Amino acid sequence: MITGNFLEDYRPATFLERGVAVPFTTPLLASARVRPSRRGRAEFIIANPSGAAGYYIMAWQGLMNLTKVTVHDRLLYDEIGRQAMLTPSSMREAARAVALGGAAGRPAAKAAQAADQRDRDDRLIVNYLLLVALLRQAGLKDLDWRHFDPNDPNLRARMRANIERLSPSLGVKAETILEWIEDLSGIVAPVGLPGKEYQSRQQLALEGVQRFQRSLLGFANSDPSEAAQAALFIQNVAKLTVDLGAIALEACYAELKDLNRLLGDWGSNRGRLLEIFGRPDWLLDGWSTICGVWVGAESAGRDAQRQAIEDLQRLLPVMPKEVTEWTGVHIEQEAAGAAFQRRWVHANVDWRTGAHVIDRIARNEAIRAYAA
Amino acid sequence: MTSNGLRDEIERSLQRASERQLVRVMGFIDRLPSRTTVEDLVERVRPRLALVRPVRPMTLDRVLTLPFEDLLAENDQAEGSPWLVPRSLHRAVLAIAHRRIPEPLMQDLQAAVIGKTMDDDEALLDAGDTLWPAAAAALRSFLLHGAGEERVEGWGERHRNRLAGLALVLENGATSVPFLRRLPGKPMGTLNEAEQAQAVGMLHAMRAVSEDLFRYGYTMLMRRSSDPTDIFHLALNNDLDILHDRRERLLADAASECLDEINALHTNMAAHRQQSLNLAADRTSRLVALIQSLERAPPAVRVDRRQLRATKERASQTIVTILERSLSGELRQSMHDLTAAAMVADDDVMAAEDMARSAKKIEVAGSRLGIGRPLDAVLQRELAACHALLSHRAGQGAAGGNTVMDALRLVEIMFGPDAAEAILEQLNGAAGRG
To answer: For chain B, what are the domain ranges?
Structure first.
């Protein structure tokens, strides 16, 4: 079936309107996104369950009526309700909290634990790197981040002594500067810094999408079936995401060029930074799951890859109009790819792919371990 | 490690392997200098391999087998159809090809496939273009000059016609294989429009060569499909240049071959009730899919419905027995182990989950056959036992943290999320009160 272009631009205006990808493990809900509704409650957007084009928007109860929802997803829904805001980052937090309890299996629990630890380490590293950058920008050139030991109990005291020298120019006490930098590192750590000193979550995610795009292009060029055309479309969307992601990362790095100026008006800059540094996360939201699906299929032969392509079409996020405002790049409404779908099947079988529902849940849980 | 030790290790791994692990173990086996000593172990997991389909390194034997891979059958089953290739004959075909294809050509081909995988269509078809006609010529020359004198394992005079047929299939490998590669692998579900076009295209191309080759092509599709009625419809709804009475005969024979496969699957399941749950689940799923498909066969296909009903009845009983045994045996033991020990290894948890998934698949397949009620009774009994065990352990404070969740996951896989959530709420309530 070839789906043509809509006459009107159907794309969501903002990323929030597009919704945050929810890492559900129930097969029918694997493509779900959530956003706040007008009444302030969460509403879910899922790809048309029949496998045809289009989306359904419904409340949680609607999802529960639609399919047998896994215990993991029920717990995740409760956890989402406890989050103050709906963002990719708060979703990650909620998903990790549930995974840590073991509801998605042990590999996912361990991956969540490791990811939590990594985030804490990243924040420490970035804290130090920002301090070093701040001091360098102020004229201290002899600091080497490679000698940094996060376990050094005297680190903070030594840094404080250096920071005190900046105190007069920023007009606040050294302790306040350290607090601001700590606050800033929480914002910067997921995105990272320019250069190759350490790889942040978003930089790694972007590389992951790039690898995925190349691999898919390889598949599209060598597979003789109709899945090749769908793969070509998906890799185009991936390429666009990589390009826009790179622009968004550069915009973040530009903010860090003059830390003195940034901290000089920290009170008013903080909100703007939160918004700018949150953009790569929104742009890449949902792509870790997409890459996870493909990574799982890569070693499993052509049939598994063709099936994965079918799934990927449903997971592919639509680029909201807001992206033009963020990146300065005008995006034409994407022409829908040639939908590549298969067969009808029996009960307890995923009717879009023919795979057993119980295997699909296991696969989605394995993706939780990959994309923690 | 000694070769015996290695063999034992591989046997253990293959027996317990989940799908993902199976891919890894097969990757390891593929890298062994020789897999002769473990070939029989691989044979036992072949039905599962067909489902998992790991990426396999390209070898000449695999390329050579490709045009008739779908025709391979267990020896007993192949007896019932002249279009099938018994596994014992497969060995003979490989031996004859290796012996009679000129050495320099084999060396060239060998060099061309090294480092390639079976997913590399271009390399595969390139190698096949040379190898298949050469193998066909080798088989023909063997039939003409060597069949009476040469000792070849697996060869017997009774296979003369089959071998001649295989020469025909190999000779036309370049016609059939590109189509086969575009179709889903076994088990091939109901075909979509584009896939139907590929299947019909293949049948047309084979029919243009000869009616015999067409018959082989039709058998390939029947063997690959888990919905043979879909393949019946291909013959009924398309002009395949076959006379009406020939087409009737073709459909009747195909239905009979399908019934043979169903019977063989059931006999195997009933005879090997102690087989691994993974294997039992895969066999049950295929058995049920074939029975259901044959039940839906159009009237133009003369299916022996009495025999089908009898087989279905026997299969239903076997499924209930297998499920009962697995739930009250292996799974109950796993649940017991998980809740009894404070520390359970990840591998053991994953093996238990895999077992539960297999049991669930058997139950789902059984429900499709219309035996939901007896299966439900088995499930209810076991759920009550699990519930009691978990409550008891929680009361004792024996199991904590993750092990409770591990056990609950088994409950969820086997009995559904509602059952697991109810137990979870009860346990949380008890913990809160405590």
So the answer is: 177-229, 323-433
